Amino acid sequence: MNRFQAMAQIMAVLCEDGHLKRGTREYKTARRLISRKIDRLGPDAAFAQVERWKGHMQDQIDIMSMLQDLEQIFPHSLV
After folding, report:
1. With 80 as the cut, is the pLDDT of residue 67 above it?
2. Interatomic CA distance for residues 77 and 79, integer angstroms
3. N or C: which end of the chain has fewer CB within 10 A?
4. Mind spelling out the 3-state secondary structure of 28-57?
5. Residue 69 confidence (pLDDT)
6. pTM reported for the whole predicted model
7. How does pLDDT run across 30-51, given as a tens digit for each residue?
8. Calpha distance 38→46 (Å, rounded)
9. Sign of torsion over alpha carbons 41, 43, 47, 50
């Protein structure tokens, strides 16, 4: 599987329960997170890991989105 196929399949797994919607900030955050994971692990390993730890990935995406909200409110106070 190549990088683009992995991204499409991983996003399909993450979106299948309606937790993520296309075009939302959370969706964009998820794509950035998955892109880094594919770079680090490779497409096949990244897909396998996300499939195994889907709930954890969704929690991580939610936390990253909350941090982005805080950075917009307090742009100079977070490191």
Report:
1. yes
2. 7
3. C
4. HHHHHHHHHHHHHHCHHHHHHHHHHCHHHH
5. 84
6. 0.82
7. 999 999 999 999 999 999 999 9
8. 5
9. positive
